[in-house]
Write the structure tokens for this entry.
Amino acid sequence: MWLSTDYAVCNAILRDHRRFGVRPAGDPGPTSPDTSGNTFDLGFLEREPPDHTRLRQLAAPAFRPKMMAGYAERIAEFTRDLITGIERKAADGRPFDLIADFAAPLPIGVITTLMGIPDADVHRLSEHGTVVGSALSGIDSPEEAAALATANAELHELFSELIALKRAHPADDVISYLVAATPDGITPYELQTTARLLLIAGFETTVNLIGNGIATLLDHPDQWELLRTEPERAPAVVEEVLRFAPPVQNTSRFVHEAVSIGGAEVPAGSWIMLILAAANRDPGVFSDPAVFDITRPRQAEHLSFASGIHYCLGAPLARLEAQIAFTELATRLPKLQRSEDAPTWRKSRVIRGYSTLPLLVG
């Protein structure tokens, strides 16, 4: 196994889809469900061109930056309603859980609305997201395998019913659009895996972006105060949180042909782990990289959304949700502070975020 923490090496590998791929050379990926249920097919995220290109293009229209203006008010409304609920819950001075009461239901509510999923069970979908995120590190126990199999089965049932509904009664949502693309543009199996990917990826990163961001801001009171008094800095806050405390810690690539990179001769067939969180603190790229500074001048694009053809499709939506979340929390709950109750971290080597984050409204 090879590994890099260097920004230039990680960026170069992510951008070179000819010599480095998300699958071993010649492996097209599964075309039918894993009957064991012990793997989670990440759809086009784990496909090479031309399949990757075809499937990504089908899903892309809903996540283009120009669509964000139409989503902004809907996200702001979700955000305000959740904060109102927090204010009521914490009115007597008791702590609330930022993850369960805000960071999870916000992006889950948004993505399920965009996809046309009615009456979504926020708690259950959040559990599925946690299971899938943990499975990215590998299955380490029979209990984890069982949890993933359950998540697979429930999500398969959800989308089987939803796809049938949208085929009979199409609407203005992402699933209806994907259904309309079959059979010419997407196979039934690809439709299932694409839908599951868009759902999980549509909220999993954002849950942890919001949680990590608020925790980091509260650990740096001067930065929280700066955001509170100048909420227009929210976009810069999002970028600095993504650099400093990214939800996705690492990714990997297979070497399709022998290559000389980063001073090493790497043979074909090798596997390279790219530590994105470390690359985001490369002192050769970012000045004072261990300092959290929302006024940091733009020096380089962080790698938290990857780079190249696999750059995160939902990045514009995640950025918008986090910007609105940080702005509204700083404005509505300016005295937000950590509770004496200890937070808990998720168990994953790929996804970094909180399972619980008890806070007080102040």
Remarks:
- Residues 294 and 326 are 12 Å apart (CA to CA).
- The radius of gyration is 20 Å.
- The mean pLDDT is 92.
- The chain has one domain: 2-29+49-360.
